[in-house]
Amino acid sequence: MELNEYRWGIAFFDLEAKKEFIYEFGVVLLCPQRLSVLDSYSTLVRPDDPYFDSLEPVMSNGITRDELASAPTFPQIAHKVYDFLHGRIWAGHFIDGWDCPRIQEEFEKFGLRAPQDMGTIDSWKLLKERFGEHRARNLKMATLANCFDLGNQTHRSLDDVRMNIDVLMKCSMFLLLEPSLPNALITNSWFSQNDTTIPVPVSVETPSNAAVQEGSNVYDGFLEPDKVLIPFISASLVPSSRGGQKIQVLHKDHPLQLYCRRLRVIFGPNSKYSDHADRLKLNILVDPSPSLCKVLDVCDNLAKWVSVKSDSSSEWLPVVKIKNHLADSSRIDYQKKIYSSGIQLHIPYGDSTIYATEIYQRDASGNDDMVFFSTVDVDELKSLFASETLVDACFSLDVYDYEQQNTAGIRLVAKKLIIHANYSSSEYE
């Protein structure tokens, strides 16, 4: 998906619809940091004939045929819907299975350009994974609303969106409080006294150390792609150490740095490449995971947008090299495998010819031994980063703009590389 920019805010939306038509749309734009409402919009939608003629006088949610008769048609409100949704994170309850495909179908039905999301948050999937069905009879909105005394679900778009947000906030608070609550208090608090359902006991034990370690970041300050919260990525101009300003990519107001496991090396360093200052350019080309590509694409869009807004005329080079941006010689077939995308990890070195990147080798027992170098040696690096080698990488995102060469983009600067010695990627597949 190609978008010119990421737009701020999470768009929680809901549709009231039949199989053939949408008859109500509601959306709340939520700030991902303060969780405050930035904007909201709702409207009834008049179905086209002959669907309108077949409507019952009063719908099950109380909407009347007369109200729909005076409502705008979908083409009349499509621009408003598009403006709220395009380029934003979409969120809603069972949104992946219902609302997302239905809104796309409605735009296509009228020959209109459909909005594109920058990712989706299906609260049903999220609650199933993080909250669990054992804490409630099911994860339907009405059931969860009853658990938290939020009232009855009206099945009106804007009401349901607001209830969805309230349910998520209540569930989040409960998960934060749960480890500190007595077990009896947890199990006896879910349903009203009139409810005959027997709650399932919930353990208040914290996860094992192993589970915590597995889910946490291995290196402080570096995030695995799956741990990055897309709505919290931003790009802004900051003072540069060389004077002036530079673009910095941030996550929750801190410089974004990434940690990726088992990246497959496509190419090692090559001595025939040099940088803008005619210095040896030491890069390794690796095969990125889909989750890493998603994060980097968002960073690219944000940084490019700031670059354009700051009146840069440089050509923006995408950080993820895809088919059309890879030279033909870079598309190599190893064991029937064609690499049609890649990212470059830059290994910097100083005037003392010592690499700024820490490089380690991991043995079969999982021990990491630091590799020491006496000088910059491309052939030595090439032998370490042979094609198909697996590498763990910690790297930062450095936005550059070379006015003389008229190029700009994001450089991925390797801070730490761990080579899985004597193992090829095929052993992990």
From TrEMBL:
CDD domains, per database record: DEDDh
Keywords assigned: Exonuclease, Hydrolase, Nuclease
GO terms, molecular function: 3'-5' exonuclease activity; nucleic acid binding
One Pfam family matching this protein: RNase_T
Gene3D superfamilies assigned to the protein according to its UniProt record, in alphabetical order: Ribonuclease H-like superfamily/Ribonuclease H (3.30.420.10)
Residue span(s) of domain Exonuclease: 9-177
SUPFAM superfamilies the UniProt entry points to: Ribonuclease H-like (SSF53098)
Superkingdom of the organism of origin: Eukaryota
Protein's UniProt name: Exonuclease domain-containing protein
Record lineage: Eukaryota, Viridiplantae, Streptophyta, Embryophyta, Tracheophyta
